[in-house]
Amino acid sequence: MMYKLLSFVALTAFGAFTLSPAAAAHGGTYRGPGDIVPPGGFPGGGNGGNPVTPATPGGGSPGNPNSPNGPGPITPGTGPGINPGGGAANTPGIDMTADLTEWSYWWEFNKAGYLNLRDNLRGKVVDTGTADWFLGKNTQKQDLDRRAPRKEDIDQLVVPALLEALHTETHNDIITGCLMALAKIGDKTGEDGSSRFQEEFVAFLSDSNPEIRETAALAIGILGNDSGLDTLKALAMDDPTGRELVGGREVDRRTRTFATFGLGMIARQSAHDVVRADVFATLTGLLDGQSSATRDIEVACINALGLFQMDTIGGTVETEGGGESASLHAQAEYLLGFLRDEGRSDYSRAHCPAALARMFEARGSDLGELWRERILQALLEGVKDRDLDKQVQRGMVLAMGQLADCDSDEVDRASREFLTKGLRNVTDQQTRRFGLVSMAQLVANPAKDDSGLRPVVGEILRQLAGNRNGAREWAAISVGLIGNEAPDELSPDLVHALKMGLEEQRGPRVSAYAIGAGLTGSEEFTEPLLEQLDKIRDDTARGYICVALGMIGDPTAIRTIQEVIADSTYRGALMQQAAVGLGLLGGYESSALLVDTLVASKSLAVKASMANALGLIGDRRSLEPLVALLSTKEQPDLARGLAAAALGNICSGSMLPWNEPLARNINYRAATETLTGLGGRGILDIL
Predict the structure, then answer these.
(1) Helix/strand/coil (H, E, C) string of 170-191?
(2) Helix axes of 590-600 and 637-651: crossing angle, nearest 10 degrees
(3) pLDDT digits (tens, 9 = 90+) for 338-355
(4) In 10 A of CB 644, how many CB atoms?
């Protein structure tokens, strides 16, 4: 599986990790400035493989993160990992002195939806070879077809190359890269529901390499065919059929977990409520039954339940087996009950608020206003409980921004009161900083009045003018989010405060202000960003400035970013960020620069960064050189696997990364190994 490689530049800047060659060789690309691992993390994975004791009807005995069977703390630099072959760990540990409250972690998980890179790129092309461009004139022109891969490109060039590699190669990086690529490209099912790609994936479930097995299970879920339901159910439940699929052995924890996530993906894509009802019954059965569910599987079940909504509002629906399962109301009721159940694992409860909030992604959800207020009231009651676990509290505060608004409803007034004043009494720094994101998000919700807006905007301004650097940076991001999601509410005071902060910064701290400015999309910030790019030498900050300039979309920045790319040949993370910025501006030659660097570079980190950027940009001119790289046996196996992953991302039918629905507003501090974290081997770390 093509896991995301950590950015060397960002890691150096934040002082979080030491990377070994083996870690780089494990593959993947950049998620952010380090793995996301909660203090008191999960050596060996999840909860060390120990089962979580399910709650009994009378309250039961929960699996406790602090129990003797739970994970112990990770000591600095010694966290274990699992290599692709399952042997001795040699992936990097985490230095627990790293500040995991940094804004950049939140941004890297949530940026895809704000950049919306491929959608922007395919509608924008700038001709950089004309006199008008050199004079700084906007020469953008609409040409929706110049970048997107054509069906014949995919069918005649890409898919045959991926299948050929899948059938003839043995290295896990190449095989997993091809599995993921084919899953993202997808295929048409036959009249009987059969799928060629799914049959290919099932064949790899019995592979001796655990990384290949778990990737094959995940690929079935990403493919999203209803016919994959029974296969993933058998794997997730570790039943006799599941064991037969993996070669007669017990289904390992990671494969079970990835199959569980896959169930949520099938339910999300299915056109049939009966499939969603079946998935609901399976997931709740795993959570409630006397199974050997680990913390990883519990967290996967909760997140999967938030990926879909059942069509039936009330009552029950029949499953394929003839039984009955719950309605949309019962789905929400279950998650709310799980959140309130103190007998459940705190780590699993910490993900319930996000799952509930996702069910309201589109305002006017079928759950209705009554349910919104009911869930929001439960969050309010929870966050005020002094004995509440901090992981659960963080999840609740994050979800409040997606559910609350600025109108005069009592529950909304109380939510704003807590976020703007109550959070000052909360000792957990991460919770307070998540609160700044929630403040910005609730401003963007439609229902509002001036009396509701003023205290929220006032608190963000207060934090932006404060003397705590970390909080000021989160406040800068909050201003950007308001400008991005509710531009009419971006007051002159907010713009002025953000601009002053941007101009005053003299080092890496400028990064948050740059991204905040970029999110607003205002050309008013172009000049101060260009000035900072000229002055600052820190690669991480320069990369974020390039992305910010791309988000603003002022073509006068193209030439400057081209110069950054030309000067960063051996600095993969900076080149990747600059290429993303150039792509957002419509710089048509950015893909060619990335392909040339990917092929020529000797650095695995640079190759990984280039492959990720190519997949994000999605330019069909990259297809032939990437297919050539995949097919050239003289190239390193990892480079060929990265080429396969990039091909899948370019040819994917989705405008956003496949795991974006899971990453958005995720409570990443309540992490398990299979979600995101140690060694970068979680579902959110995969290309």
Answers:
(1) CCHHHHHHHHHHHHHHCCCCCC
(2) 160
(3) 999 999 999 999 999 999
(4) 32
Enter the tokens of residue 524. Answer: 């008013």
φ, ψ of residue 623 in degrees (nearest 5): -65, -50
Helix (H) or strand (E) holding 125: strand 125-126
Tally of CA atoms within 13 A in the half-sphere of 154 that contains its CB? 19
Count CB-CB contacts under 10 A for residue 469. Answer: 10
| 3-state class (DSSP) for residue 317 | strand
Whether 428 contacts 466, CB under 8 Å: no
Q: What is the CB neighbour count within 10 angstroms for residue 274?
A: 18
Six-digit token pair at 647? 């091909």
Q: Give me the residue label for tokens 């190519």.
A: 614
- Report which of 686, 675, 683 is spatially closest to residue 37, judged by C-alpha positions: 675
Q: What average pLDDT does this structure show over 462-486? A: 93
Beta-carbon count within 10 A of 347 CB = 31
Radius of gyration of the chain (CA): 24
∠ CA(20), CA(25), CA(31), 5° rounding? 85
Lowest mean pLDDT among 141-150, 183-192, 347-356, 501-510: 141-150
- Most distant CA pair in the chain, distance: 76
Q: Give the model confidence (pLDDT) of 358-372 as tens digits.
A: 987 644 566 788 889
pLDDT digits (tens, 9 = 90+) for 194-252: 899 999 999 999 999 999 999 999 999 999 999 999 999 999 999 999 999 999 999 99
Structural contact between residues 112 and 656, judged by C-beta atoms closer than 8 angstroms: yes
Instruction: Report the Cα 343 to chain-centroid distance in Å.
Output: 29
Per-residue pLDDT, averaged over 507-527, amounts to 96
Say how many CA atoms lie within 13 Å of 425 toward its Cβ: 8
| Angle formed at CA 208 by CA 224 and CA 43, multiple of 5 degrees | 85
Where residue 679 falls among pLDDT bands split at 50, 70, 90?
A: low
Give yes or no for a contact between 86 and 214, defined as CB atoms under 8 angstroms apart. Answer: no
Q: Per residue in 150-185, is it b (16+ CB within 10 Å) or e — as a string? A: eeebbeebbbebbeebbeebebbbbbbbbbbbbbbb
- The per-residue pLDDT of the chain, averaged, comes to 80
> Beta partners for 3?
686
CB atoms within 10 A of CB 209: 17
Residue 452 is given by DSSP the state H
Q: Is 496 exposed, middle or buried (0-12, 13-18, 19+ CB in 10 A)?
A: exposed
Strand ranges (DSSP E) for 15-133?
Answer: 125-126
Q: Is the pTM of this model over 0.90?
A: no
Tokens in use for 386? 């002094």
| E strand map for 274-357 | 317-318, 324-325
**Tokens 């940076």 -> residue:** 473
SS3 686: strand
Which amino acid, 639? A
Beta partners for residue 141, in sequence order: 125
Task: Find the angle CA(332)-CA(389)-CA(292) to the nearest 5 degrees.
Answer: 65
Contact predicate 533/546, CB 8 Å: yes
pLDDT of residue 80: 27
DSSP state of 342: T
In this structure, what token pair is assigned to residue 628? 């050539």
* Residue 126 backbone phi and psi in degrees, to 5: -110, 130
**Of the segments 27-36, 133-142, 447-456, which one has the largest average pLDDT value?**
447-456
Q: Which residue has the higher pLDDT, 562 or 244?
A: 244
With beta carbons less than 8 A apart as the criterion, state whether 176 and 641 touch: yes
In the DSSP assignment, the letter for residue 423 is G
**pLDDT tens for residues 580-597?**
898 888 765 677 777 788
Task: Quote the DSSP letter at residue 250.
Answer: P
Smallest Cα–Cα separation from 582: which of 603, 608, 613, 612? 613
The 8-class DSSP code of residue 141 comes to E
